[in-house]
Amino acid sequence: MSPAFYSKFDRHSNGEGLKGNATHYCPGCGHGLVHKFLAEAIAELGIEDDTVLVSPVGCSVFAYYYIDVGNTQAAHGRAAAVAIGHKLANPNATVIAYQGDGDLASIGLAETIAAAQLGTPITIIFINNAIYGMTGGQMAPTTLMGQPTSTSPDGRKQINGQPIKMAEQIALLDGAVYVERVALFSPAERNRAKKAIKKAIQLQKEGRGYTFVEVLAECPTHLKMDSAESEKWVKENMVPVFPLGAKKDSAPDTWWKIEQPVFDGNKFVEIVGGTTDKTERHCKGFPGHLHPSDVALKLAGSGGDGAQTAAILIATAGINEGFDGTHIPAYGPESRGGTSYADVHIAKDEVLNPASPTPHILIAYNAPSLTKFGPTVAKGGFVIFDSSVAGEIAPPAEGVRVIGVPFAEIAADLGKMVVKNIVSLGALAAATDIFPRETFLAAVKQALKDKSKLIPLNEQAFDRGFKAAKECMKAKGY
Ligand code: SF4
Ligand code: MG
Predict the structure, then answer these.
(1) What is the pLDDT of residues 214-224, one digit of tens each?
(2) Reduced to 3 states, what is the DSSP secondary structure of residue 123?
(3) How many alpha carbons lie under 13 Å from residue 463 in its C-beta half-sphere?
(4) In angstroms, what is the span from residue 324 Cα to ligand 2's centroid?
(5) DSSP E strands: which ranges in 397-449?
(6) Is any ligand 1 atom within 6 A of the Cβ of residue 222?
(7) Dihedrals φ, ψ of 450, to 5°?
């Protein structure tokens, strides 16, 4: 496996066993091959430490699980804009946006065109599989005439417009210096695809301009074919519409040279009208009894449980105490059902990885979250859950303390279900001693600065959660 790949992929079961090298893509999907070529190109150019990969929304939304470079997740269609931001902030970085057809050619078309005309040296890898993959096989901007999709069951018709030929469009724009369309359906085409991807990255690295590689890729799932049939389909049906080859190859000499920008925090605050005042600190020190340098939490529930708000409050509390704090909300494919969750880190110095695949603390607001994430909690950690909606679980690992507090019942008793998450924060404080009460309440007050009437209710909710957790711990002998 290319050294630019992570040695194990955490996406499934924390990367243990066979799943450690399995991607989330369907069998025969073109994304797997393109990831391989991309990782090989990065490794061969020796730029693993200087590269930023921008993942899109679509089937490749989880590209950051696989390629071991700097990774950023862009909002739907915005990968080119995010890539330009990275390039301006880090002019010496190699920045690659990886996008599908719905992302690049539909919702993100404005950014795509603007970036290609602007010509900032970034590289776009465009996966054209003629379909919206992740969302269920709807008609994409590149769907072929007559091609049936879930939103055009009788095939794409004239009234739906013609498939857009992105490589040709991009080649017309002045900022693009290298544009090529490649495919994956045979060893020779794969070879050309790999060379084109490497060349596009190389030209960017040399500061010679914006580069774009369109890859005609297979989506066997929505074609309802096996791998061999879908390769044949791409060759026979896509290639006549999307001819292969270079559409532009006119890279000038190196021209990209800008100063590394310097960030002046005080100047920033002056411009945006903020304050540099420090909030009062209440912690005696970093909660090193949970982890010496970086405490990972996961909060999981369903919409309306307040998991994201509670996550923000924990991160804010940590930052107010002078630590580093991050909050990553997850509304990925999981939003199609099941659980949604937030990963939070509180680090003594700096959060190096904001994901929490094996959290020290799990707060679960419903039974599916408890089942899904309970087994991921690290040895010696904590599971704090809403006992009014979820049954008891056995400690998932050695020394894990399982603390059930009726978040929902307490909130109902207080007359406002929305404070369920504040009850959970009280339980968190009691169970783990991560921060003192005052630290949490300072963060709550900050959040409620325009709704100060609600502060006493939130304080009550916090204290009830705290008390209930202490009682549970006493009963269990923790
Ligand atoms: Fe690949 Fe299609 Fe599956 Fe998405 S739906 S992972 S594009 S085969
Ligand atoms: Mg697609």
Answers:
(1) 999 999 999 99
(2) strand
(3) 8
(4) 37
(5) 401-405
(6) yes
(7) -100, 5
- Rounded distance from Cα 248 to ligand 2 centre (Å): 24
Among 391, 376, 476, 472, which Cα is nearest to 424's?
A: 472
What's the pLDDT at 339?
65
* Residues, the chain: 478
Mutate to test the pocket of ligand 1, among 61, 129, 226, 234 (most ligand atoms within 8 A of CB): 129
Return the CATH number of the domain spanning residue range 267-476. 3.40.920.10
Q: Report the top-level CATH class of 10-249.
A: alpha beta
Of 160-164, 199-203, 217-221, 299-303, least confident by mean pLDDT is 299-303
Cα of 290 to ligand 2 centre, how many Å?
43
Pinpoint the residues of the chain covered by CATH 3.40.920.10. Answer: 267-476
- Residues with C-beta atoms within 5 A of ion ligand 2: 100-101, 129, 133
Tokens of 186: 């045979």
Buried/exposed code over 355-389 (b: 16+ C-beta within 10 A; e: otherwise)? bbbbbbbbbbbbebbbebbbbbbbeebbbbbbbeb
Question: Which amino acid would we find at residue 175?
Answer: G
From the CB of 184, is ligand 1 less than 6 Å away? no
Distance between CA atoms of 340 and 400, rounded to whole angstroms? 23
